């Protein structure tokens, strides 16, 4: 009889162990699903944060995006030069050809600006037709002037549109 009771106990014990293992497996699967869901949420939040630092029209950094990047650079004790620019006659483009054409000019300007800057430069659209470049290295006065002239020349060259009555130029 003792052997029979022992066998029943072992069977009972084994059944309880199997139930516990099955419950632990279910919990594990549930936790894995929750972890995947949380990871997806974090990734989506990171994308929203990244998008909030970009100008939706031009794809350039916006005011918040450039501030954060330049601040981080300057906190390390580095120096640099700011170039602040806007488009001359941009209002006339909007008034003459409409805001859709104005948006096209802004996008064209942003592309030209990206091609004109040096690799390490930080570029952003502050708003409207105002843009900024931060060059992350100190320069002499002559170098700053030469770079500004080069940037203006390269950008304006790409802004020429045959047949357009209003000519867009750059002030820096």
Q: What is the CA-atom radius of gyration, in angstroms?
A: 31 Å
Q: Could you name the ranges where pLDDT drops below 50 across 5 or more consecutive residues?
A: none
Strand content: 5-15%
Query: What's the helix-strand series?
Result: HHEHHEEHE
Characterise this structure.
With 172 residues, this protein is of the alpha+beta class. A 4-stranded antiparallel β-sheet has the order 2-3-1-4, sandwiched between helices. The chain starts with a helix and ends with a strand. It contains 5 helices and 4 strands, in the order H-H-E-H-H-E-E-H-E.
Topology at a glance:
Elements: H1 2-52, H2 63-75, E1 81-88, H3 90-97, H4 99-116, E2 122-127, E3 130-135, H5 141-159, E4 169-171
Helix pairs in contact: 3-4, 4-5
List keywords for this structure.
four-stranded antiparallel β-sheet, alpha+beta, 5 helices, 172 residues, 4 strands
Put the structure in a nutshell:
It contains 5 helices and 4 strands; from the N terminus they run ααβααββαβ. It is of the alpha+beta class.
